[in-house]
């Protein structure tokens, strides 16, 4: 016969501290092989550690860990768990240290006490943590071993049972936390009995009047209908036994909290509740469950919509049972739960019930696994409770029962980290997450303006990997925008998407700024006034929704400024620009190489240079986002007079103004940008140029040419040759030089070489 865990005992009213021998006896009652000496040592150690400490009630503090241990003996837990319960408050509240506990009680108990101490510290950090679901996950992640959670729940249960000694505001907070976090956690772990007691204790403290009213009404109802319960139980038992089914039928009254939540949920009055009474039918086998169901349904009419088969489809927390409601004797609605003994243990004691199978031997454990948990339908299911199922499978397959507790290590949320905002909001993130991910999880605006982070009060890099329980404070700066490089450094999709969006928006803003400047000049050239209002009127003609769209399109080169002028002033006839735009000669662009080794254009407006021409385009911030390239066939070097050509979606290409290629842009004056070399930058970068040589065909020509270029510190990027005639060869050299002077010196030297017939710069 399966040993059934006894119900968790209600506290006796007379408080008397449990004696040393009583604790040992309680354990020995269900585990004759218990380590008596170990239990005694723990008792003495904790008693001495807590010394004369008192609880709020005036009781010796030591009574508390003993009561917690007693609750766990009711759940028939192993020695290590009981000892950990006795020791659970020593490290945090007394002089005791974890090292000492490890030394005296071994690594297993040491690890359990360590887990409990961590949870206790977490309590202090997270007083305001409002999101129960995440906090429960945090508990699970930090606990590391399911036994730590069992002790924690027993600890909370005892604190709730003695809550009346606390100050009222504290009482309310603890009760609310119990309702939000610990009761659901007990539920998730399948410990319904514990959950219900926690809920009722919390409810009593949060809504004392409502609690009193419901309790009184329940008492009245019970007194009135006691005969009904007995009658129904008796009729049921007889009908089942007549069909050869042994069943244990018990009537059960709902708890005040569950009645109240049903009243709240369904907005009904107490009187309208039909299922205050429930009956539990415990039978021997799964087949008997369905046989009993058949008997019930053929004896009384069933209430439609109330039938649920959780044996065929277990709940997430491994709960299995058949539920149905019938119109029973005396036209009473009767709610029934039909299940086997093993299912009932799991329903009441959840994970703690699984621990019992430690004593049962492998065969019954296998059976329990088969009927209690591992259902074929669930094999493919992914869910938070798979680990529980795995645990039971391991138990069933393992060689020794000890392996069960070995495998209760929580793997549940090991791939997540849980952190707090300074205000106590809990943020769940994937493992490996950084403060940047955290910032975006709090709010996109916080992420976009993040410039620094403090972790647990200390400055930390934004790329620091976060750990469980970290309190993260993000420093922000208005107007900051996230560097595009962050995108590859974050782990959350939300952060990645937000960074991409912000980067795109910043680029768009820059193009719009550029477009705005281009338009200003285009209108000026056309001797027309420009205003955004006028432009707004022309939006339909331009097929754009906003003026911002027009600016960005012009900036990107997708729309030409002349078209915009004509859209605003339809009667305007523009004269095309001459082929070599004078205005371009003394532009104000400045080329610099940025940290990521790409060339960028800056404009002296940003530096505020006094000699800037007024028609230059001073664009701040353009640096980061307009890539600069050089004339593809011939390049450009400092000293050349240059012009920039804006290419849609590409950026700016810099041409020497003598480039033949510029003719292609004659009819698109809006694409021309005034740029010029920054003399300070000269000599710090190499720039591309192309030379065309004609040389006599003789051995060693290449070597001589290469030597000249090398002597002058030029870089040859590419050489190609083509034999033109038998005597002469055409050679094209792509090289990079510091500036025009440098290039001119190389050309002069090459021209001086005997085999070289001619040297010309190429401006394609
Ligand atoms: Mn405690």
TrEMBL record:
<feature type="domain" description="TGS">
    <location>
        <begin position="415"/>
        <end position="476"/>
    </location>
</feature>
<dbReference type="InterPro" id="IPR043519">
    <property type="entry name" value="NT_sf"/>
</dbReference>
<dbReference type="GO" id="GO:0008893">
    <property type="term" value="F:guanosine-3',5'-bis(diphosphate) 3'-diphosphatase activity"/>
</dbReference>
<dbReference type="InterPro" id="IPR045865">
    <property type="entry name" value="ACT-like_dom_sf"/>
</dbReference>
<dbReference type="InterPro" id="IPR012675">
    <property type="entry name" value="Beta-grasp_dom_sf"/>
</dbReference>
<dbReference type="Pfam" id="PF02824">
    <property type="entry name" value="TGS"/>
</dbReference>
<dbReference type="InterPro" id="IPR006674">
    <property type="entry name" value="HD_domain"/>
</dbReference>
<feature type="domain" description="HD">
    <location>
        <begin position="61"/>
        <end position="160"/>
    </location>
</feature>
<comment type="function">
    <text>In eubacteria ppGpp (guanosine 3'-diphosphate 5'-diphosphate) is a mediator of the stringent response that coordinates a variety of cellular activities in response to changes in nutritional abundance.</text>
</comment>
<dbReference type="GO" id="GO:0005525">
    <property type="term" value="F:GTP binding"/>
</dbReference>
<dbReference type="InterPro" id="IPR002912">
    <property type="entry name" value="ACT_dom"/>
</dbReference>
<protein>
    <recommendedName>
        <fullName>GTP pyrophosphokinase rsh</fullName>
        <ecNumber>2.7.6.5</ecNumber>
    </recommendedName>
</protein>
<keyword id="KW-0342">GTP-binding</keyword>
<dbReference type="GO" id="GO:0015969">
    <property type="term" value="P:guanosine tetraphosphate metabolic process"/>
</dbReference>
<dbReference type="GO" id="GO:0005886">
    <property type="term" value="C:plasma membrane"/>
</dbReference>
<feature type="domain" description="ACT">
    <location>
        <begin position="690"/>
        <end position="764"/>
    </location>
</feature>
<dbReference type="Pfam" id="PF04607">
    <property type="entry name" value="RelA_SpoT"/>
</dbReference>
<keyword id="KW-0547">Nucleotide-binding</keyword>
<dbReference type="Pfam" id="PF13291">
    <property type="entry name" value="ACT_4"/>
</dbReference>
<comment type="similarity">
    <text>Belongs to the relA/spoT family.</text>
</comment>
<dbReference type="Pfam" id="PF13328">
    <property type="entry name" value="HD_4"/>
</dbReference>
<dbReference type="InterPro" id="IPR004811">
    <property type="entry name" value="RelA/Spo_fam"/>
</dbReference>
<dbReference type="GO" id="GO:0008728">
    <property type="term" value="F:GTP diphosphokinase activity"/>
</dbReference>
<keyword id="KW-0808">Transferase</keyword>
<dbReference type="InterPro" id="IPR004095">
    <property type="entry name" value="TGS"/>
</dbReference>
<dbReference type="Pfam" id="PF19296">
    <property type="entry name" value="RelA_AH_RIS"/>
</dbReference>
<dbReference type="InterPro" id="IPR045600">
    <property type="entry name" value="RelA/SpoT_AH_RIS"/>
</dbReference>
<dbReference type="GO" id="GO:0015949">
    <property type="term" value="P:nucleobase-containing small molecule interconversion"/>
</dbReference>
<dbReference type="GO" id="GO:0042594">
    <property type="term" value="P:response to starvation"/>
</dbReference>
<dbReference type="InterPro" id="IPR012676">
    <property type="entry name" value="TGS-like"/>
</dbReference>
<dbReference type="InterPro" id="IPR033655">
    <property type="entry name" value="TGS_RelA/SpoT"/>
</dbReference>
<dbReference type="InterPro" id="IPR003607">
    <property type="entry name" value="HD/PDEase_dom"/>
</dbReference>
<dbReference type="InterPro" id="IPR007685">
    <property type="entry name" value="RelA_SpoT"/>
</dbReference>
